[in-house]
Amino acid sequence: MSSPRSDSATGGEFTSDEMMTVAAARSLRDEAVCFVGIGLPSTAANLARRTHAPGLVLIYESGTLGAEPERLPLSIGDGVLAETADSVVGVPEIFNYWLQPGRVDVGFLGGAQVDRYGNINTTVIGEDYHDPKVRLPGAGGAPEIATSCGEVLIVMRHNPKAFVSAVDFVTSVGYGRDGRAREQLGLPGKGPVRVITDLGVLEPDLATGELVLSRVAPEVEVEQVRAATGWPLRTADEVGTQEPPTERELTVLRELKATLGNGESS
Amino acid sequence: MARILQLDTAVAELVDDGDTVALEGFTHLIPVAAGHEIIRQRTRNLTLVRMTPDVIYDQLIGAGCADKLVFSWGGNPGVGSLHRFRDAVQHSWPVPLEIEEHSHAGMANRYVAGASGLPFAVLRGYAGTDLPNHTDTISTVRCPFTGEELAAVAALNPDVGIVHAQRADRAGNVQLWGITGVQKETVLASARSLVTVEEVVDELPEQPGAVVLPTWAVTAVAEVPGGAHPSYAQGYYERDNGYYQDWDAIGRDRERFREWLDTEIHGAGRSAR
């Protein structure tokens, strides 16, 4: 699935979604332990494992430790994960023994809304919890991934409805409503260190917890990113441009996506 | 000792109107046929419990079987939203649906507490989230040794726990393997339990890494080949991804859903196996 702006943004050689996936993959260092969700995070983690990070350890919340799927899994509990894992454990164990004590270096999150302090909403759109405009899927594993992983990468498509000043509901905490929550709550993990979108990369200003534009995707203007952001987006002193995907990254990514078959979304 | 029953008999005996019922399965081994039998028997006012309510819960909710859902993530995996669930929450169709929501870690620990005979479980969870403001089975507890404040969640003890497994023997010992989710905890936490299985065999073969539920911990076993379809049963059949995709269009539309209910659940020739 590609966002419609891909051609204008990239000249048609690669899509903005491919850039986003490659950027997410590059954020994973070799031998890191990574808690992976289905969709783009799973694609990015498997791309990293096939390129610069062959020792990346993938954990899926269905209970598979060290999965090495030869094709992209279609769901979090795909049989290919259990068949290739070092170990398959129950769901209480994956959260209590493996996530909770801080054994996971990197967690991937996404959602319907993210706000200027990196808080994520996957619960309800609208101000009244009991009478929501849109009922979303809910929390899943995200609240504890957000607090227990060494660091969090957020991956989301950039638009003003998704990038809001304050989320309607904090499902998973970033830096809290005021940017200071992590120290107040004494959370072990660093929280969101990077938000990777189809337009570029935001990173937190560590003094305030506010997300700031640090890089734009190739051929994307800063103003475009501002227009797609629901708060007055600040920029880093120098806004860089992301390196476009290499031929190898694109080849491996497209081979991976082809393993999904039957039009399943990424 | 577990009794080996027909599915329709087992559901009729074990599941009553107003019960709290957990049909668990984490993508794998989802007890779909048992869920369909609950719909077929027109069971009402259930409190349904599940970490990951997916298509079968969408069907149960759309059919009006439930007035409350206890869960942590509700969606059609890899496809999108559950439209019957959304319609119930947003428009009270066909009946209002109360919700009680948690995180996966919280729900998993609630089952563990229930299976352990404890009133609550302790975890590092829910920090900084808005969930405790809306869910009264989330609270805090102070560690008596260190003074640290931790999250506490109330135990889950369903009236009926229903899971699917690969095999049982004729004595009712159950064997399941692959991704086993919270199936063991669900059976042990519930007052009564039903396990549907792909096959009943004379003797359970060796299976590395398998979970075995002894017959004396299970109320009833029903042989239902294909009973986890459209999810999968490792060693038996693959996930039917097309079914999940097709459900999106059916679930989106009340009329199409009613037609589905009439033909696929209540229709002639669709009686319980």
TrEMBL record, chain A:
Q: Which organism is it from?
A: Actinopolyspora biskrensis
- Keyword hit for Transferase: yes
Q: Which SUPFAM superfamilies match?
A: NagB/RpiA/CoA transferase-like
A Pfam family the protein falls into:
CoA_trans
Identify this protein by name. Answer: Glutaconate CoA-transferase subunit B
Q: Enumerate the Gene3D superfamilies for this protein.
A: Glutaconate Coenzyme A-transferase
- Give the family per the record: Belongs to the 3-oxoacid CoA-transferase subunit B family.
* Keywords tagged on the record: Transferase
- Looking at the keywords, is Transferase present? yes
> EC?
2.8.3.12
Automatic annotation (TrEMBL), chain B:
Pfam families assigned: CoA_trans
Coiled-coil blocks? none
Q: Which organism is it from?
A: Actinopolyspora biskrensis
Matching InterPro entries, A to Z? CoA_trans_fam_I, NagB/RpiA_transferase-like
MF term (GO), any: glutaconate CoA-transferase activity
Q: Which SMART domains match?
A: CoA_trans
Q: Keyword tRNA processing: yes or no?
A: no
> What is stated as this protein's family in its record?
Belongs to the 3-oxoacid CoA-transferase subunit B family.
Q: What is the lineage of its organism?
A: Bacteria, Bacillati, Actinomycetota, Actinomycetes, Actinopolysporales
Q: What keywords would UniProt list here?
A: Transferase
Q: What is this protein called?
A: Glutaconate CoA-transferase subunit A
| Listed EC numbers | 2.8.3.12
